[in-house]
Amino acid sequence: MDANGEELAPAVRSILSAARDRTGGGERVSVDARSVPEAFAAAEADGRAPVIAEVKPTSPTTDGRRDDDPVDLARAMVDGGAAALSVLTESDHFGGSPASLERIRAAVDVPVLRKDFILTEAQLDVVESDAVLLIARFVDDLPALVAAARERGFQPLVEVHTRAELDRAVAADADLIGINNRDLARLEVDLDTFESLAPSVPDDVTLLAESGIASTADVQRMRSAGADALLIGSAIMDGDVTANVRRLTTA
Ligand SMILES: O=C(O)c1ccccc1NCC(=O)[C@H](O)[C@H](O)COP(=O)(O)O
What's an example Gene Ontology biological process for this entry (predicted)? Predict the structure, then answer.
C-alpha cells in the first residue's frame, strides 16, 4: 500500500524498495542550473513544441533494452530539436546511472532533468543536474524537499497524478509541475488524466504532460489541453531518436 491506500504494482514496489536502500548523501551539490522555462521559450520561438526527451534505456513497461552510448542518444535527441533532456539515474529497473547523466550534461547545452525516485534530501546530493524530479505520491514532506532542491540550485519538477497530489504540489510552492498520465499503482497510461487535471493548475505554473505521448496527435492533444511542454520517453527511444524527436517537436 502507498500513502493513497492503493496497492502498488509489483515493479513499483520493487523500485521504491531499491530507492529506500539508496543513501545518497555525498558532498552537498551546488549547481548553476540552465533554465528549463527559458529552454521551453526558446523552442517555442523557434517553432518547435517544447519537448523533454528522455534517455531511458529500459523500464518495467518496455520490452528489451537499448545499449547505445547514452551520450550518443542524448546528442541525437538535441539534434532532433529536444528543448531539454531527462536522464534516468535509476539503475536497477531503468538501466540509468548518475555517471550517464554527468557525461550527458557535459556533452549538451540544454537543461538536463535527473529522473529518479528521490525520497530524501540526502539523495539530492548525488550528481549535478539542472532539474530534479520529485514524485508527490512518494515524498512525505514535499515542501521540505522542494526547498532543499532549490537550496542546491536545482529546479524541482513535481510530478502529480491526482487532484490531491496537485494540491500538495501547489501548496509546496512548485512552479514546474508534471501531470503523469501513467498511474504508478497499476502502470496504466491514460491521456485523459492530463485533460482532467490541467484546468486546476494555476496559470503561473509551467505545466508538463508526462508519459504515454506517442504520436503527433497526442502532442497536439496535450498542447490543446494546456501543456506548456511534453516529457516523452518510450516513443523517442523506439527507433531513430533524432527522427522521432523531430516528428514530435514539429507536431
Ligand atoms: O516507464 C515505466 O515503465 C515506469 C514504470 C514504473 C514507474 C515509472 C515509470 N516511468 C517513469 C516515467 O515517468 C516515464 O519514464 C516518463 O514519464 C516517460 O514516459 P513514456 O513517454 O511513456 O516513456
Answer: L-tryptophan biosynthetic process
Domain containing 15: what range? 10-27+35-249
Judge whether 235 lies within some domain: yes
| Residues 198 and 225 sit within 8 Å (Cβ to Cβ) | yes
> Has residue 44 been placed in a domain?
yes
Quote the cell numbers at residue 216. 503527433
- Which residue type does 162 have? T
Centre of ligand 1 to C-alpha 121, Å, is: 23
pTM attached to this predicted model: 0.97
CATH of the domain at 147: 3.20.20.70
Q: How far apart are CA 101 and CA 114, in angstroms?
A: 7
From residue 1, give the alpha-carbon distance in Å to each of 9, 64, 78, 165, 185: 10, 29, 39, 16, 9
Give the pLDDT means over successive 10-residue stretches in the chain (251 positions). Answer: 75 96 89 98 98 97 93 98 98 96 98 98 97 97 98 98 98 98 95 98 98 98 98 97 98 75
Residue closest by Cα to atom 3 of ligand 1: 61
Active site residues: 54, 56, 115, 159, 180, 210-211
- Whether residue 5 is contained in a domain is answered as no
Q: Using the 8-state DSSP alphabet, how is residue 27 labeled?
A: S
Q: Whose CA is nearest to atom 17 of ligand 1?
A: 211
Distance CA 202, CA 249 (A): 25
